[in-house]
Design brief:
The protein is mainly beta and 106 residues long. It has two helices and seven strands; from the N terminus they run ββαβαββββ. The relative contact order is 0.38.
Amino acid sequence: MRLLIEMNNCDFIELNKIQEGLEKVDIEKVWTIYDEKEMWDSCKFNPYTGRKVETLDDLILSHQKGVFIEDAIHDWMVSKGLFKLYSRFFKDGAKVKVIIETTIKL
């Protein structure tokens, strides 16, 4: 499951405010969006199924195609129910769109 959120770089947000129950699941990947149009345009059809990409969960994300994958601990972490982001690609306090990816659908 993927969730798109907007937050300030070098800040934190409560996981329960993003999605109820999110604090109980492991976050597998975090992607920072630098060009949302490029992200969507990079994958119009799923190459494995041939189906048209219509949702964030259908999209095959690719590093440097509108998004950067962030490193756990260095760029993001979860602690005491808080999601913290420290993206190296944006200035402190800058508004950032982020995709949080989990293996469990809530």
